[in-house]
User: Which sequence fits this backbone?
DNA sequence: ATGTGTGCAAACAGTTTGCAAGCTT
DNA sequence: AAGCTTGCAAACTGTTTGCACACAT
């Protein structure tokens, strides 16, 4: 995706301004408001290419559809509500160990840490 | 899944003794060795029910199939290798903040923290 | 003018469901 | 005997791909 198209611009803008991770369907629904006739396949194609170029990152929450959010370079802390299933992107916190990282009002019941990198066999 | 069947027993044993998160296909392939004629649907049915009863937890890694692992009650730290795409379940560490949690030999390039709980609106 | 990006529809992969038969209780 | 569980195949959902046309370069 190296050319400037209306579709690409709108899709990126939607993700950038969402402030939380969106599912492919949500991205598409929001983007269609600006470009009617936008095909779902185009949305998927852009999500893939934006992910590959690291402008967008995928966030997965078991048992739920994948979500995508703007990659601002910072590592992320997310909060998944077990009641409403919404996903929140939390502000970069103090760097405390996980259970302490949620702001007031969020009741943490458990956490999962995923580290990315190179394993001993591959390194 | 309240009855004791050969299939259920084998599937749980496979997950318990894997020591790392397995995809549904991996679970099925390993279980078939003990119960030939085991249907893939049965594997999915047990994964779902084991997850619902919290004996097993799902671990997702964007762009990869879902994985399931034995839930021993502890919160988990996982390491995803960007070269071979394998997933490792790391020992429960010191409780340090994420970048410091990997044992020697693992080169951490980034991390993702997922907190589970109840959000302010639902709480 | 060239060739990438798009929309559409068809193809796909992974997961779920309906059903008759088998097994556990 | 009652009814949960299984295997099979068909149905579904979410994602990808082939193709002809449109548009950015």
Assistant:
């Amino acid at each position: 995706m190296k050319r400037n198209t209306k579709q690409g611009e709108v899709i990126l803008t939607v993700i950038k301004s969402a402030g939380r991770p969106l599912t492919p369907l949500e991205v598409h629904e929001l983007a269609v408001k600006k470009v009617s006739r936008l095909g779902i396949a185009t949305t998927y194609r852009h999500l893939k290419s934006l992910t590959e170029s690291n402008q967008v990152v995928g966030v997965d929450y078991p048992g739920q559809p994948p979500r995508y959010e703007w990659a601002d370079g910072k590592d992320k802390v997310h909060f998944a509500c077990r009641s409403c299933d919404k996903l929140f992107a939390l502000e970069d916190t103090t760097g405390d160990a996980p259970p302490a990282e949620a702001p007031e009002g969020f009741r943490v019941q458990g956490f999962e840490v995923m580290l990315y990198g190179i394993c001993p066999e591959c390194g």
